[in-house]
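**User:**
Make up any protein.

**Assistant:**
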Amino acid sequence: MPQGCYPNSKGIGGLGASVFASNPQWEAQRTNHFEVSLTYIPGNDTQFPQEFRIAVSEVSFPEWSIGDVTLYMGNQSVKVAGQPELGDATITLNDYIGIDLENRLYRWWRKVYDPETGLMGLAIDYKTNMKLIMYAPDGSMERSWDCYGVWPTAAPAGSFSYEGSDKRTIDMTLKVDNMYPDLDAREGIREEAAEIRNQFISGNRR
């Protein structure tokens, strides 16, 4: 166990919490070290995905849930996995006036349904893909999740109040067809992390 600048570290088996600072294996993932990006945003120019990424304030990615099927035999029963269901993603964005965020998000939603004409759009015209990347404090990528078939469920909306002057935010709920982590990228990250740990250990043994 490398000691680093914490010579009294007792490790996992001891009482000292300094192990969390003396070994990069126990570096905690921060909730604010993330990035959300969209492949493209229907109804908008190619620059908007970059501006969207910067405007993101909070994100809650969807979760998989599995229903159950009950099988009976005599007086007993067992439960087995049923149909999977993927929840919604929610995103909060800061409403920056200079990039006309609200209207550009509305253009995306209008690809789903245009209230001026009363016509629905085609899925190929309003669905896009989304990626969530989580970073370590040093900026290295730690985890990556991919979402496919992403589209907004409602027109962008926010709230106003005379009782304060906080920045305005826009909340979006997004439907997602499929989601899973990029495990291949993660394997590469693990190899890189192992090399960094080995260098760290070697450096502390000198």
In short: The two ends are 14 Å apart (CA to CA). The first strand starts at residue 34 and ends at 38.
